[in-house]
Write a structure and sequence with these properties.
single chain, 293 residues, alpha/beta, 10-stranded mixed β-sheet, 22% strand
Length: 293
């Protein structure tokens, strides 16, 4: 897999103003609607999705004819996750890591068909909203090692749910020009819209049932018109007991995918666990890579 837009490759030597300016350029190039080379229905969905919204005007159509005749082959979904390590193998504390390590796990029909990893020097600290400049280099190097071409990338991080609509999933997706989805465990910005008729959860207990998808709208912290749907809270799993709860994932389009399809992809690939299986396996593997003696 090769970089299609080299001008967007993350450069951690840029100052903050230049990084933010580049993100605005990336967001302007991003396609936040479906432009896929496969039919999302090919992913093994349960058919039990609960849509907690009625936003017909926000439904997206294919951007061009690239998705008019989707491939009949099962799509290849690549999960990407990152971790950090000290070069000398010591137990580093916060801010003491030397390298970012990115793991990519490619799956097709529920089976792992390839996995690769790469590392890059950590040159800047974590800055909210600028994650891709800290971790993006190792992701791109790892993707270049893949011998298969993914149909969609699932990244641990945000896409359009970002102050400038250019989270790590958008940055990477636009740079390699592949459909990309951001899957985050915490909400960087935006506001989750409550389910119709149930401000405290569709089941009346405060817990959202598995399969629930709630839209996330832009808020005042974003350079996006307020009310724009930028992603979704996706409840992939939930406990049966009202005394225990699992938080939703915050899913957003990165590139060449609409928010509803991004949510459906995350839900369809979640398997038996909260995280989509490609990301879960990448997370597991990168943890092994960064803790191995």
């Amino acid at each position: 897999m090769t970089v299609q837009r080299p001008e967007f490759v993350p450069d951690p030597s840029l100052d903050r103003e230049a990084m933010e300016s580049l993100q605005r350029e990336i967001a302007a190039e991003a396609v936040f609607e479906d432009d896929l080379g496969f039919d999302p229905a090919q992913l093994d969905t349960t058919g039990q999705t609960t849509l907690g919204f009625d936003h017909e005007t926000d439904r997206t159509e294919p951007a061009d004819d690239r998705s008019a005749e989707p491939s009949s082959d099962p799509p290849i979904v690549a999960g990407i996750d990152q971790a950090f390590r000290a070069i000398d193998g010591s137990d580093a504390g916060p801010g003491e890591f030397d390298e970012a390590v990115s793991a990519v796990v490619a799956m097709q029909s529920g089976e792992v068909i390839e996995r690769v990893y790469a590392s890059s020097d950590l040159e800047i600290p974590y800055i909210p909203g600028l994650l891709s400049f800290r971790e993006g280099q190792s992701i791109l190097v790892a993707l270049a090692e893949l011998s298969v071409e993914p149909d969609v990338l699932l990244l641990d991080g945000s896409g359009r749910i970002h102050f400038r609509e250019a989270g790590i999933a958008t940055h990477v997706g636009v740079t390699v020009d592949l459909p990309a989805v951001g899957v985050a465990k915490s909400l960087l910005c935006g506001t989750v819209q409550p389910a119709a008729g149930e401000a405290d959860g569709l089941d009346g207990t405060g817990n959202l049932p598995a399969g629930t998808i709630l839209p996330i709208e832009a808020d005042d912290s974003m350079e996006t018109p307020p009310g724009t749907v930028v992603g979704a809270a996706v409840q992939t799993r939930q406990f049966d007991s009202p005394n225990r709860s699992i938080n939703p994932l915050y899913v957003s389009p990165g590139h060449r995918v609409g928010w509803e399809t991004a949510a459906a992809i995350a839900l369809a690939t979640a398997g038996e666990y909260k995280l989509p299986e490609p990301i879960r396996l990448a997370d597991q593997w990168v943890g092994e890579l960064t803790t191995a003696e």
